[in-house]
């Protein structure tokens, strides 16, 4: 069994996971098209010191979706605005943990 944490140097890890309604919620204000849509959820789980048990042999398959560059850039810009709001909220809620690499300067 492999146990992993979303801590440096894996601080950009965005795993898919099975959980309950007790875990930090996924922010629907962030889109996968804008990238990093699970980043704030995983950051909050790191701040709460979650450990992940890695499923051996698991995989995900999905259909590719092609979007225009203009659409992708707009989604990335919206994600950045929403990401910063979420980070500010997390900064008020939790103490810094160096292992989690929260960008406190945002």
From TrEMBL:
One Pfam family linked to the record: Glyco_transf_49
Name this protein carries in UniProt: Uncharacterized protein
Species this protein is from: Spodoptera exigua
């Amino acid at each position: 069994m492999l146990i992993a944490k979303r801590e440096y140097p894996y601080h950009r890890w965005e795993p898919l996971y099975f959980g309950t309604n007790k875990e930090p919620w996924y922010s629907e204000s962030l889109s996968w098209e804008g990238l990093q849509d699970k980043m704030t959820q995983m950051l909050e789980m790191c701040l709460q010191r979650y450990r992940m048990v890695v499923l051996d042999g698991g995989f995900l398959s999905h259909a590719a979706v092609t979007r225009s560059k203009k659409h992708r850039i707009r989604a990335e810009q919206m994600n950045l605005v929403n990401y910063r709001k979420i980070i500010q909220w997390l900064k008020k809620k939790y103490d810094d943990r160096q292992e989690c690499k929260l960008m406190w300067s945002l």
